[in-house]
Design brief:
The protein has 303 residues and is of the alpha+beta class. It contains six helices and 13 strands. It has an eight-stranded mixed sheet, with helices on both faces. It has a three-stranded mixed sheet with strand order 2-12-13, with helices on one face. It has a two-stranded antiparallel sheet with strand order 9-10. A hairpin with a 4-residue loop joins β6 (157-165) and β7 (170-172). The longest helix is centred in the N-terminal third of the chain and has 35 residues, at 16-50. The protein starts with 6 loop residues before the first helix and ends in a 24-residue tail after the last strand.
Length: 303
């Protein structure tokens, strides 16, 4: 794998995609601010009418006092996340990606156990997608983005921002589906948004709990032989850490009712720790019951 083929590395190396993302996000914030201002004005005018104030007078009061001042959107938090300062770059191999997605999780996620993860900004790169997050104390700001190579005429990047509060176990996301006009565009965004949060949690969980191998590849150097899973040619001016696994040679064959996956299980004192339990493929066993003749003595109450 050449580093130039990783979309996340392209994102970090040039300003083209960042400029688009910040502009697109700022545009959405501006539209949202206008909509909030318009809705507030309508409510105040309606209130004035209910109190016997003429519409003209109510509009005059709204314009005079301007209860919601429309300002340039604050993208400080986003800009900090997008900065390349003090960021650590990682290449996630297909082995790791495949295994992490076998972890069975669903929202609401069990967030508080992520608190011991070291603070700092990291970017996890794989194929045409990447995960970037910045952890400060109990707060995590995250971005999951994907290059749109196949969708001609669409935006050059799909992305999802979300914030995690590990102490309150809450995840907040911008309600950007209002930014789209067509129903299928909204549904597509919501699907990408939900999948992004899940992938983030699966990746962090797997890297934290599984026995992964981390190899530092210095700038202008390479690691591994050609076609090997952890092969990387680092063409950049910054180091890239390869995250791989060389254990678990499980062969999954067809015909199993339940595929191989991981269960995230509580353990330790007061169940405060977590561990990944591998569930190997198996065939669920069913059973058959012969029909019985019912009479009034064993018939249940009628519904």
């Amino acid at each position: 794998m050449k580093s130039e083929h990783l979309f996340g590395i392209q994102f970090s190396s040039t300003d083209t995609f960042k400029d688009f993302l910040v502009l697109d996000f700022s545009t959405w914030l501006t539209i949202r601010a206008f909509e909030e201002k318009r809705r507030t004005e309508e409510k105040l005018i309606k209130l004035g009418e209910l109190l016997g104030v003429s519409r003209e007078r109510a509009e005059h009061l709204v314009n005079k006092y301007d209860p919601i001042a429309l300002e340039v959107p604050d993208v400080t938090e986003v800009s900090e996340l997008l900065s390349e300062k003090d960021i650590h770059q990682f290449y996630i191999t297909k082995n790791v990606l495949d295994h992490c997605q076998k972890i069975k999780v669903k929202e609401p996620f069990d967030l508080e156990w992520l608190a011991p993860i070291p603070d700092g900004k990291k970017q996890l790169n794989f194929g045409d997608k990447f995960v970037r997050y910045n952890k400060i104390g109990s707060k995590i700001n995250a971005l999951v983005a994907s290059g749109n190579k196949s969708d001609k005429g669409s935006k050059p990047i799909r992305y999802s921002f979300f914030n995690m509060d590990l102490s309150s176990k809450e995840i907040s996301t911008p309600e950007m589906e209002d930014y789209y006009d067509l129903k299928q565009e909204k549904e597509s965004f919501l699907d990408f948004d939900a999948a992004s949060r899940k992938l983030f949690f699966q990746l962090i969980t797997f890297i934290k709990l599984a026995e992964v191998e981390e190899i530092m590849v210095k700038p202008k150097s390479k690691h591994g032989v050609k076609k090997a899973p952890a092969n990387l040619l680092n063409q950049e001016t910054f180091p890239i850490r390869v995250i791989d696994i060389n254990w678990n040679k499980t062969i999954i064959t067809e015909g199993f009712g339940v595929k191989f996956h991981y269960r995230l299980q509580r353990c330790g004192p007061n169940f405060s720790k977590r561990e990944l339990i591998p569930i190997h493929p198996y065939q669920k066993k069913g059973y058959n019951l012969k029909a019985r003749k019912l009479d009034d003595r064993n018939r249940g109450p009628r519904i």
